[in-house]
Amino acid sequence: MSRLHSRHLLGLENVPEADISLILKTTNSFREVIDRTIKKVPTLRGITVLNLFYEPSTRTRISFELAEKRLSADTVNFTTSTSSVKKGESLRDTVQNIEAMKIDMVVVRHSSPGAPYYLTRCMDANIINAGDGAHEHPTQALLDMYTIWKKYGRLDGLRIVLVGDVKHSRVIRSNIWGLKTMGASVALCGPSTLLPYEVEKFGCDVYTDIDEALDGADVVNVMRIQLERQQSGLFPSQREYTNLFGINKQRLKLLNKNFTIMHPGPMNRGVEITSEVADSGNSVILEQVTNGQAVRMAVLYLLSGRKEEEG
């Protein structure tokens, strides 16, 4: 089995093209598994995976848990509401006590940027970042990239527009790093108040006019307004945001003929995207969810170091 350059997946910034290509190709094998009648393989039998979620999650948490179970791993779910965190226990003490119970891999979501990296200093387990604050969300970007790659057969040369709350979106950051590494042309679009300071350092085309951004695009990945991570007053109202940046049927005319609409979810229907667009034939939103399981199976498998014949 080919190996990744790191034993952790903390983000996609500085991850080499060879690693991303390996994950995408390995995902193909696991995509076939989840289409079978019996959606289970013995690949990670004997491996124990901890899902350490300090933030609410639906898609990511369920997706990881299903991926682990379909690889035959033993899964342990952690929630802060029923843990000693409520008694004041630190992150370090929590994870070291859990690791003493012989945990092999940890999938972590935390509100603090850098928390997954911090865990690599506290634990011997493989660490997978399932979202850390507004920093990165690598497996979401990988499933987005796989969905695009599966449709077009390539990422290189495609024009992909990421629309929305650029300043607070960890999904956008991971998509930028991954897509640029694979040769895609990446454009960012959102209100100026939702663009980060020195946004030009990302090396992307930047727009505050949605119609200019969409002109000639192959893929539009629409991001949710991160109301829980931003200060109030960054745009006048949701209605104005919809008028200026919402993806509706009229704006689809600006895209290339074989265009694709994406959204990582959860959607604010009628705000950043209309139901008509979200449910259209060019939308791959539900396919993204399905592909997410296969991507996470691939990541878990590759980081585990298991040999192919064991799967």
Overall mean pLDDT stands at 91
Reported by name, the CATH topology of the largest domain is Rossmann fold
CATH-defined architecture of the largest domain: 3-Layer(aba) Sandwich
Tell me the CATH superfamily of the largest domain: Aspartate/ornithine carbamoyltransferase
Tell me the count of domains: 2
Q: What order do the SSEs take from the amino end to the carboxyl end, as H and E? A: HEHEHEHEHEHEEHEHEHH
Low-pLDDT runs of 5+ residues are: none
The coarse silhouette is globular
Q: Calculate Rg over CA atoms.
A: 19 Å
Number of helices: 10
* End-to-end distance: 11 Å
Q: How many β strands by DSSP?
A: 9
Summarize the amount of helix as a percent range.
25-40%
Write down the CATH class of the largest domain. Alpha Beta
The main sheet comes to: 5 strands, parallel
**Class by SSE composition:** alpha/beta
Strand content: 5-15%
Brief summary:
By secondary structure, the chain is α/β, with parallel strands linked by helices. It has helices spanning 17-33, 59-70, 91-99, 115-122, 138-152, 170-181, 210-214, 238-245, 275-278, 285-304, and strands at residues 48-53, 74-79, 105-110, 126-132, 159-163, 185-189, 205-207, 219-222, 260-262.
